[in-house]
Amino acid sequence: DPNEDTEWNDILRHFGILPPKEKLKDEIEEIVLHLQKEAEKIHAIMKLYERMNLEELKEAEDYFDDADRKAVEMYRHRRLQEWKCLQRTPKYGELREICGEQYVKEVTNASKDVWVIIHLYRSSIPLCSLINEHFDLLSRKFPEVKFLKAIVNSCVQNYHDRCLPTILVYKTGEIKGRFVGAAECGGMFLKVEELEWKLAEVGAIETDLEENPKKDIMDMTLSVQSISAHEDINAKSSDAMKPCIT
After folding, report:
1. 97, 150 in Cβ contact below 8 A?
2. Beta bridge partners of 117
3. Residues 205 and 102 in one domain
């Protein structure tokens, strides 16, 4: 630090390598003031150019000085950053209702880089209502994915209730996954995390869950089945050891 009051800096000042302290301070203040004025000028120029259209800006280029060029470069850089932010802005972020007439446009002909998940439902079926609630939460958690719902009669006539709920997962106009009926969809006690895991398994979303939320329930079921089987074997063994009374 040239401003630091050390013996080494005193030696450098003595040999003229460092300027005197007061002079150095004045020079730094002068540089800071100059940079501030230049920044203010560039900011003012940027404000002026923001009000111009492309044709006016092109005509003004003939009269540019260094400050103008810096201002234009900064303006372009800022606009580029704003554009990049817009590209990262969530496209969806909500569960939308569509009808059969919109199916081709919203689902089959959706953008190639977009996953589309649609729930065919009937409002009179409790599990359908539960899945719509879960979809609403998941659509906000994964805004880059298009979550849709549609009353089944508007899309498919004479669709059996036993096939509801029906969840279809699309990418590039093709079905990448399907869950048809209560059992495949997860049952009436389906949790939103379980539905998230199902959708992640077909590749539609990138979940932060580390393992299947239903794993504990499955392990518990297997454990109960194992205990029951063990007790049954013991009971049979015990019966086999009893004396036969005639």
Report:
1. yes
2. 147, 169
3. yes
In eight-state DSSP terms, residue 147 is: E
pLDDT in tens, 37-96: 766 766 666 666 666 666 666 666 666 666 666 666 776 677 677 666 655 556 799 999
The Cα–Cα gap between 213 and 191 comes to: 9
Q: Give the list of residues 6+ apart from residue 135 with CB closer than 8 angstroms, or none.
A: 95, 117, 119, 147, 149, 195
The count of domains in the chain is 2
Residue 88 corresponds to which tokens in the numbers above?
């990262």
Domain that holds residue 144: 96-209
pLDDT at residue 243, as a whole number? 44
Does the residue 198 lie in any domain? yes
Q: Is residue 60 part of a domain?
A: no
Closest CA to 91 of 136, 139, 138: 139
Q: What is the mean pLDDT of residues 214-241?
A: 49
In a domain, 103, yes or no: yes
